[in-house]
């Protein structure tokens, strides 16, 4: 009986704990090896995926760079040409058409009006900038110009006199109110500021003012009543409607 008891004690106190420790260590080693193997596989798959994407994108990037280079090269070649008589000969006199050389900056400004508008804004020529933007009849361009002037909006409308003519202010309200789907907060701030800067006593706008302001009021009201108009925008609309209505 003493031997089985001693054996049981040895098993419980020594063999079993050592077996459990060895098993636990072996499990940790297997687990570590498995996790490292999975990490290596994942990294290899990720690398293969990146290489595949890069291989597919490289021809497209090369084509775009080549096309861009060709377009710019053609533009620069055109700009370096001197005025050439029509037909390439030496014909001169009335009726002879010429190719007028210009600058690359002017061509870029023609293709992207925001270049010229940004320059005018940076120079403080706000009236000319907004005249050009409004003349394009593009709400997107007008909104871009407002955004470019946003850091100095308080300075513009706080100046005496405001450096924007009454015609520009009225046109600005009309165009911005025609589409409030994009950047409504920015547009409403500019509509409100322009409205507060209006001079109802200006006789040159006596006929146009109520008509345009009425259209602005109707557009703002329609947006305010639309079910998908966000609550925050609806609150801004109520304030601007009150300001516009004060001039009607």
Automatic annotation (TrEMBL):
For whether the record's keyword set contains Kinase, the answer is: no
Signal peptide positions on this chain: none
Matching InterPro entries: EDC4-like, EDC4_C, EDC4_C_sf
Q: Which UniProt keywords apply?
A: Cytoplasm, Repeat, WD repeat
Q: Which sequence ranges are marked TM in the entry?
A: none
**GO annotation, biological process:** deadenylation-independent decapping of nuclear-transcribed mRNA
Q: Which residues form the Enhancer of mRNA-decapping protein 4 C-terminal domain?
A: 119-225
Q: Does the keyword DNA-binding apply?
A: no
GO CC terms in record: P-body
Name where it's found: Cytoplasm
* Protein name (database record): Enhancer of mRNA-decapping protein 4 C-terminal domain-containing protein
What taxonomic classification does the UniProt entry list for its organism? Answer: Eukaryota, Viridiplantae, Chlorophyta, Mamiellophyceae, Mamiellales
């Amino acid at each position: 009986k003493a031997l089985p008891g001693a054996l049981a004690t040895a098993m419980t106190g020594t063999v079993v704990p050592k077996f459990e420790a060895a098993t636990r260590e072996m499990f940790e080693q297997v687990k570590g090896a498995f996790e490292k193997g999975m990490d290596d596989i994942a990294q290899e798959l990720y690398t293969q995926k990146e290489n595949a994407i890069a291989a597919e994108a490289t021809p497209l990037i090369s084509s775009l760079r080549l096309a861009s280079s060709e377009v710019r090269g053609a533009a620069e070649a055109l700009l370096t040409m001197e005025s050439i008589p029509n037909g390439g000969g030496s014909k001169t006199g009335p009726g002879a058409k010429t190719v007028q050389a210009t600058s690359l900056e002017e061509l870029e400004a023609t293709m992207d009006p925001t270049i010229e508008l940004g320059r005018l804004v940076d120079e403080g020529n706000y009236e000319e900038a907004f005249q050009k933007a409004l003349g394009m009849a593009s709400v997107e361009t007008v909104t871009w110009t407002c955004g470019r002037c946003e850091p100095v909006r308080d300075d513009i409308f706080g100046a005496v006199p405001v450096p924007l003519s009454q015609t520009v202010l009225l046109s600005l309200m009309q165009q911005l109110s025609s589409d409030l789907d994009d950047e409504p907060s920015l547009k409403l701030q500019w509509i409100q500021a322009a409205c507060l800067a209006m001079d109802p006593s200006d006789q040159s706008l006596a006929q146009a003012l109520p008509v345009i302001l009425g259209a602005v009021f109707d557009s703002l009201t329609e947006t305010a009543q639309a079910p998908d108009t966000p609550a925050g925008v609806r609150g801004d609309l109520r304030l601007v409607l009150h300001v516009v209505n004060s001039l009607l």
